């Protein structure tokens, strides 16, 4: 999750009564509020915002690839590999949007919101859909995967609300992440990639199935998503920022 806050150049936010407004933000607000032109919103996007859109593009393409795998033959892994590969590409664009925003000295409140929405798609929904395609399809599995996605959603919302209040270092950047950042779910994606390479999917998922044939049928490996979700919304886990 890149650092895309309203503070210019990633600096410490100051009281609005004593510091001048960020001109790039004011210009963006004016363009977004303009009532002229069907595509006036496009003019309001910064370069970093467009890079963030590519993060969302990668996430959605991953989701579509997982769905294509579900529609095809189980032993044809091309689509599921495509789904897994799109996720780290999303991380690349998530990293680059913050770099470009600082390089161009342009902050963007809209960029901060875009960043969170794109992260939810690429690192929340996409891994959950991929795991469903690989075999986590029982009602309990899907309920726990939904819990995972909602934890990611809540964690991103909390970040947007509390980022200005977190302790800062001398450069104005937050000293730590509160709860694990949502891109850490790529660790689960790498585990799923290993399963695919070994053919451990569908009926051959690691650790088998508990309660098979009952309403509580569940694959124990879904616990990876539950643990990840709990770690994201944790208040006590502090991950130092690099």
Strand and helix map with partners:
Elements: H1 23-33, H2 40-44, H3 47-71, H4 78-103, H5 109-134, H6 139-162, E1 176-178, H7 186-198, H8 223-233, E2 238-240
Antiparallel strand pairs: 1-2
Helix pairs in contact: 3-4, 3-5, 4-5, 4-7, 5-6, 5-7, 6-8
In short:
Its EC number is 2.7.8.8. This protein has 242 residues and is mostly helical.
Q: What structural class should be given to the helix and strand makeup?
A: mainly alpha
Largest sheet: 2 strands, antiparallel
Question: Percent of residues in beta strands?
Answer: under 5%
What is the CA-CA span between the terminal residues?
A: 12 Å
Number of separate helices: 8
Average of pLDDT: 85
What string, H for helix and E for strand, traces the elements in order? HHHHHHEHHE
Described by the principal axes of the CA atoms, the overall outline is globular
CATH topology descriptor = Four Helix Bundle (Hemerythrin (Met), subunit A)
Main CATH class: Mainly Alpha
What's the domain count? 1
Helix content: 55-70%
Describe the structure.
The chain has 242 residues and is mostly helical. Mean pLDDT is 85; it is low at 6-19. α5 runs antiparallel to α6 and α6 runs parallel beside α8. The longest helix has 26 residues, at 78-103. It has a single domain (46-165, 176-239), classed as Four Helix Bundle (Hemerythrin (Met), subunit A) (Up-down Bundle). A two-stranded antiparallel ribbon has the order 1-2. The protein is 58% helix and 2% strand.
């Amino acid at each position: 999750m890149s650092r895309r806050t309203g503070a210019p150049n990633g600096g410490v936010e100051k009281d609005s009564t004593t510091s001048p407004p960020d001109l790039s933000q004011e210009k963006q607000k004016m363009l977004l509020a303009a009532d002229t032109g069907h595509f006036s919103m496009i003019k309001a996007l910064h370069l970093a915002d467009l890079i963030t859109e590519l993060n969302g593009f990668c996430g959605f393409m991953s989701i579509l690839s997982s769905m294509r795998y579900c529609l095809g033959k189980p032993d044809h892994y091309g689509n599921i590999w495509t789904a897994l590969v799109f996720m780290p590409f999303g991380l690349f664009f998530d990293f680059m949007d913050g770099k470009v925003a600082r390089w161009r000295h342009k902050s963007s409140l809209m960029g901060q919101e875009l960043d969170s929405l794109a992260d939810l798609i690429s690192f929340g929904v996409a891994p959950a859909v991929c795991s469903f395609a690989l075999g986590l399809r029982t009602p309990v599995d899907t309920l726990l995967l939904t819990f995972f996605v909602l934890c990611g959603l809540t964690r991103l919302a909390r970040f947007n609300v509390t980022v200005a209040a977190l302790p800062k270092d001398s450069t104005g950047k937050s000293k730590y992440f509160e709860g694990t950042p949502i891109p850490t779910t790529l660790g689960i994606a790498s585990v799923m990639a290993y399963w695919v390479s070994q053919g451990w999917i569908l009926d051959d998922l690691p650790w088998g199935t508990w309660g098979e044939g009952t309403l509580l049928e569940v694959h124990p490996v879904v616990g990876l998503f539950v643990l990840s979700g709990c770690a994201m919304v944790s208040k006590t886990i502090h991950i130092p920022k690099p």
